From TrEMBL:
It comes from the Eukaryota. This is MKROS protein. The gene is Mkrn2os. Signal peptide: none annotated. The lineage of its organism: Eukaryota, Metazoa, Chordata, Craniata, Vertebrata. Residues 1-125 form the MKRN2 opposite strand protein-like C-terminal domain.
């Protein structure tokens, strides 16, 4: 990622299938997201939510709001789909919905900053004559 194009956003089910929305409607992709940034939305101790996650996501994705003709590049897009699902789950747990700004600040920016630092370091190392050697076990301790 070069930082100059839009990112595409999706939500995964428990089997790693990514639900994502675009001008053709909702897609379910089992591959093609290998170069993504994964942002955990559910804490591991929320087992009751995890039990229903897949059915909640499937039901949500079938709603009329996510039909292809509803897509609008700036206002009703993949980001809207992801945020609306997160807010649906939050509402079901009695929590306040997140605004786009708050969702971006809390979930996306910290992870994209970290990925950006990693990618920048990787690009710098790739363009230099460097060789990284793992330390011997006794040196690591």
């Amino acid at each position: 990622y070069d930082g100059h194009s839009d990112l595409h956003v999706g939500i995964t089910n428990s089997k790693g299938v990514v639900y994502n929305y675009d001008q053709e409607g909702v897609h379910r992709a089992g591959s093609g997201w290998e170069q993504c940034i994964s942002i955990p939305l559910v804490q591991p101790d929320m087992w009751e939510l995890l039990q229903h996650w897949d059915s909640l996501l499937e039901e949500f994705s079938l709603e009329e709001a996510w039909l292809p003709h509803r897509y609008e590049e700036q206002q009703h897009n993949c980001y809207t789909f992801a945020l609306a699902f997160v807010n649906r789950v939050r509402q079901g747990r009695g929590r306040e919905p997140l605004s786009k700004a708050r969702f971006t600040e809390s979930f996306l920016i910290p992870h994209t900053r970290e990925a950006s630092r990693y990618l920048t370091l990787h690009q710098q190392l790739a363009h230099r004559d460097l060789y990284i050697v793992p330390l011997a076990e006794q040196e690591q301790e």
